[in-house]
Structures are given as C-alpha cells and as structure tokens.
Amino acid sequence: MTARWSWFNITSVVLGFAFLYLPIVLLVIFSFNESRLVTVWAGFSTKWYGALFQNKGILDAAWVTVRVALISATVATVLGTLAAVTLVRHTRFRGRTLFTGMVYAPLVMPEVITGLSLLLLFVSINFARGFWTVTLAHITFSLCFVAVVVQSRLVSFDRSLEEAAQDLGCTPFQAFVKVTLPVIFPAVISGWMLAFTLSLDDLVIASFTSGPGATTLPMKIYSQVRLGVTPEINAVCTILIAIVTTGVIIATILNKRRAMLDGRPAGS
Amino acid sequence: MLRAATDRLVILIPYVWLLFFFLLPFLIVLRIALSDLEYGSPPYAPQFSLAEGWDAILDKVGQFDFENFVFLAGDSLYINSYLSSLKIAFVSTVLTLLIGFPLAYGMARAPDGLRPVLLMLVILPFWTSFLIRVYAWIGILKQEGLLNQFLLWLGVISAPLEILSTNKAVYIGIVYSYLPFMVLPIYSTLEKMDESLVEAARDLGCTRIGAFWKVTARLAVPGIMAGCLLVFIPAVGEFVIPDLLGGSGTLMIGKTLWIEFFNNSDWTVASAIAIILLVVLVVPIVLFQNAQARSAEAGR
C-alpha cells in the first residue's frame, strides 16, 4: 500500500497505541509510588523493589518459573523443529492428518481444557505433581507454537542446497545440521523465545498441573492479587516487562544486523 | 536405509509425544466425564479400567451413563454459563474488530520506514505477561481508580462509575488482551493490498467511502475472519479475565469449570463441562482451519 497517511489514520494509530500502552505505563509508574495505595501518587520511591527482594515466596516462585521456562522452551524447540520438518517434508505417511491436527489443535484450545486434561493424565498414571508435571505440560503446548514458527521458515527453504551438500559427501543428517539449520536458525530462536515467554506467562495450565512446592510466579501473582493488591506485585511486573522488552529489542537488533551481513532485507 | 530410519525417527518423536500428552489426556477426560462422582482421591470411580481388557470395555460402552451430562443440561447455571460465554466472546470480538480495524488500517498506510516499528509495537505487548496486563486494569477501573479520578476531574461524571466487577470490565479486558490478535492478520492483508485498485474504483465513480467498502473491506475479509476467530475462540474459554475483572454476576464457562474443579472438587462434572466446551468450539475451529487453508491457497 502506498503511504498516504491521512489525519484519520494517524489518529486511529495514536489512539490504538495509547490504549495498548497506557495500562502498562501506568503500572510501571505506580511501581515507584511511595504510597501503599496503588492509585494515589505520594512521591517517588524504590522501596517496593527493596521489599520484593526480601520476599522469599516471590523469589522462590520466580526461580521455579525461570527453570521451568528454560527447560520447557529448550525441549519444545527441539520437538517443535522436528514436528515442523515432518509437516513440511513428510507429506505422505500414515496418520499425517491426525499429526497435523494434533500440532494445530493446542494453538486454539482453551487453556482450562488443556490444563484439566493434562492433570487427569498425570493422576491416571500416578505421576507425582510438581515441577516436572508443569514442565511437561509447558513443553506440550509450546512445541506447537515452535512448530508453526519454524514451519513458516522451512517452507521457503530451497531444498536443492541440502541436496548439493549431500552430493558433496554429507550424510542427510550432516546436510541438515550444516546447511538447513543455519538458514532456519532465526526461526528456531524466535520459536524458543516464544516458548520461553509462553511458559513464563502461563497461569492456568500451571495451576492445574502443579503440585506442592512448585508454585510459579504467575500463580503467586494471581494469589496475591486475589488477596488484595500489594505494591510489590507492581515491582515484579515492572521487572518482567523490562526483561521481556530488552530481550525483544536485542533480538530485533541481532536479526537486523544478521540480515545486513547477509545482504538481504530483514524478515525475508 | 539409514535415511529411512532417521526420517521415521523425525516423525515418530513429536508424534508419540503428542499422542501421549495431547490425545490420550482427552480420552481420559472423556472417560472421567462418563464416570461417577465418588468421595475419595481421586474423586471419581472409573466406569471401566484398561486392565479388564478390550472385551470388558466394549461390553460396558453400551452401558455408559451420561448422568454428568444430564446434570449439566438440567442445571440452568451451566447452560447460562455457556450462553453468557458465547455472548461475551461475541460482543468482545465485535468491539475488538471496531478498534482493531482502524488501527491496522492506519498502520498499513503508515510511511514505509515507520511500519516495521509500528508492527513491533503491536507485537511487544503480546510478549508481555497476559496476567500483568489484566492486572494493570484493576488499578484503572476500580471505584477510586485512575479512570474514575480522571473522569471526575474532567467533570464528565459527578459520582464514580462502577466498572470493575461488572461485565463491562470483562469486555475491556478481553478487547485489550486480544487486540494484537485482531490487528496482526488484518494488517498483513491490508499491507499486501494493491492501492491502485482503490484508485481504479474512485476513477470509476465510487465515493471515498464506497471505494473503501467495495474494495478495501472486501479484500480484508480473510484477515478479518482470521482475527475474529483468533479473538473469539480463546475468549469463550477465558478464565483469568472474568475472574480478576468480572464480578460474581459474570458467568463464563472457563471460570465455571475452574470453580467446579478447584472449589467443588467435582472432577466428573468439570470433565463433562470440558467435553461440551470442546464440542461448542469445534465449529469455529473448523471454520478457522478452512479460512486458513483458503488464505494459504490465495497467498500462493
């Protein structure tokens, strides 16, 4: 579309972004509020950040969350990449329709159903609930997101490059690792990041599949919010927002630089 | 030979994983939905066990009792939960479209250099925690919250509005949380659109609005469809938003399932609710897949 930016367009974009960002900005501002009341500004203070780092419950939950997210994102990326290879390259095998369905279905499945069904699985096989059940649940739903992200990149990959590598003496596996993987790597990385943030973010599925001693940060935030708002939660949220924003910005810059080195426009 | 073995492994590993962690759990939910409630741990009595062998299982299939489903059908709470979820999801989807379309349209018409930045700004909140974004609205919407303070200060209202703990807050929460899901597909269809088609329509005598309606809106239909379903489907089963922003009068099926499961420990009824919810969602999911297949074909 050619750029003809009317006042109407500018207004709708500005209003849209104001709506998207105002709540987040207000949350960050009020995390530096001196007052315990969330809506009354009583001067700048970082005391809630101090209080946060004294709060063992929150710190423990954060540590559980990060470990779950690291393990589940990594495993989900491996499985999701394999699933993407299957979706793109193995167009004919028995049960492919079922496989495709199982990859796409979790993307639109309500979280309460996914959570409930996984919990009932763990109960049925008598698997003790805790850290590992949450991790397994997170691997399962995020592998589907990774598969979709990697698939979109793999579709446009020129397979003759891999064949050339094989003609030059590579085994199919070597050709995949040396030729295909570097090309689809940006998608694999963004798949990993997506899986990581989905896991960090998840409340519902973790609540169903978690057991004693494995409270994740969203579960902790959720229970605190229900008990009554504590300003420390604003501080936790601000830190999470800062981490995610920094991560996304770094990823974008790296992607741009890579694209520039390769001499092609970003995102192609 | 080695190649075939590797290929088989590539297929088999994710396949077996999904069979075990995705399909099998659903069969278990179905089985428990057909079981009797029991006071114990776990709180249900299975109608059959795999240990009895296939013959015994097949024998019992004929005698399944659907008492949990009958119970759901007989209690207006559950029916109202489903209906109210569908209504809330529908209204929120329409509102999201009304806000999302102009935003996507404006973005698609932005200068070339600005568009990637705007695109990233739409995606960024999606990377930020869902729970945090819902939580942020509590401070804005409550009685002494920022919105009421602002409106009182402006003099638009004389007494604080009651928004939090009503369905209005749920609408705001859903529209806000799912806005990027609406904007992204619409933006991608509008961005690809050929502007000369609109010019041609104008040359042929269309008014500005006529050309927009007859060309731009029509061409954006696949994006609108995808966006609406991406908002509608998860909104139906939403739990966090009605729980944190809604009140006791807000009935949504995801919340009802959660309460049955965690507060009432009624696993059999929770499973039956899940099965029906799944059936209710199958229609839009099938529509969604068809729409995706169609847009994939059109894109080629």
UniProtKB/TrEMBL annotation, chain A:
Record's GO cellular component terms: plasma membrane
Keywords of the record: Cell membrane, Membrane, Transmembrane, Transmembrane helix, Transport
Protein localization: Cell membrane
Keyword Phosphoprotein annotated: no
Domain (ABC transmembrane type-1): residue spans on this chain: 62-254
Coiled-coil stretches noted in the UniProt entry, renumbered to this chain: none
UniProt topology in membrane: Multi-pass membrane protein
Keyword Isomerase in record: no
Recorded superkingdom: Bacteria
Pfam families membership: BPD_transp_1
Membrane-crossing residue ranges in chain numbering: 7-32, 68-89, 101-125, 131-154, 175-195, 233-254
InterPro entries: Bact_Polyamine_Transport, MetI-like, MetI-like_sf
GO BP annotations listed: transmembrane transport
Record family assignment: Belongs to the binding-protein-dependent transport system permease family. CysTW subfamily.
Protein name: ABC transporter permease
Native source organism of the sequence: Oricola thermophila
From TrEMBL, chain B:
ABC transmembrane type-1 domain mapped to chain residues: 82-288
Keyword rRNA-binding found: no
Entry keyword set: Cell membrane, Membrane, Transmembrane, Transmembrane helix, Transport
Protein origin, superkingdom: Bacteria
Record's keyword annotation contains Transmembrane helix: yes
Subcellular location: Cell membrane
Lipid bilayer topology: Multi-pass membrane protein
A cellular component term, taken from the record's GO annotations: plasma membrane
Transmembrane regions listed in the UniProt entry: 12-34, 86-105, 117-138, 211-236, 267-288
Gene Ontology BP term (one): transmembrane transport
SUPFAM superfamilies: MetI-like (SSF161098)
Family membership: Belongs to the binding-protein-dependent transport system permease family. CysTW subfamily.
PANTHER family associated with the record: INNER MEMBRANE ABC TRANSPORTER PERMEASE PROTEIN YDCU-RELATED-RELATED (PTHR42929), PUTRESCINE TRANSPORT SYSTEM PERMEASE PROTEIN POTH (PTHR42929:SF3)
Protein name: ABC transporter permease subunit
Species the sequence originates in: Oricola thermophila
Top-level taxonomy: Bacteria, Pseudomonadati, Pseudomonadota, Alphaproteobacteria, Hyphomicrobiales
